[in-house]
Amino acid sequence: MPAKLLLLAGVALLLGGCASQNGEDLLGSGPLPTPSCDTTRVTYAATVAPLLLQNCGSCHANGAAAGGVGLGAYTQTKAAATSGRLLGSVDHAPGYSPMPKGGAQLSACDRAKLRKWVAAGAPNN
Ligand code: HEC
Asked: What DSSP element (H or E) covers 51?
């Protein structure tokens, strides 16, 4: 009887060891099964401004304001956001000019980040 108990304890230890190793693998540097979109830390300064500058800046920043829309400064971008034009254009919604003009639509992840920022009230954070 004591021998059986010892055996059970040993098996439990082995299984426990395997489980925690697998857990470590998931948190390690291995490839994730699906591409992830991290929208947990979306801010104007770190997320929105660089994204717009890179994808839209040639026509909407640094002195350019195609269609009367500037996206190089916070107040301009907030105006485009609160009017609905920012999301309408990047989502290619009916009634808006699809953006970026002449280019591929922004990735679903980038659009999710913009959507999250606008939903938060387009804060200057
Ligand atoms: C190659 C130049 C170019 C790029 C790049 C570009 N735009 Fe535009 N955008 C325009 C022009 C020109 C207009 C004026 C409307 C038109 O001609 O379609 C415009 C209009 C807009 C409007 C007003 C649309 C409406 O229907 O009221 C918004 C908002 C906008 N752009 C946002 C963006 C955003 C966001 C990006 C980047 C993801 C972007 N644009 C990239 C040229 C550009």
From this structure: helix 49-60
Structural domain containing residue 102: 44-119
Model confidence pTM above 0.85? no
- Best of 47, 77, 89 for a ligand 1 pocket test (most atoms within 8 Å of beta carbon): 89
Same domain membership, residue 52 and residue 98: yes
Residues 19 and 63 in one domain: no
Same domain (yes/no): 59, 86: yes
Cα four-point dihedral sign 78, 45, 37, 65: positive
State if residue 68 touches ligand 1 by the CB under 6 angstroms criterion.
no
User: How high is the mean pLDDT in each 10-residue block of the chain (125 residues)?
Assistant: 57 48 53 76 98 98 97 98 98 98 97 98 98
Domain count for the chain, please give it.
2
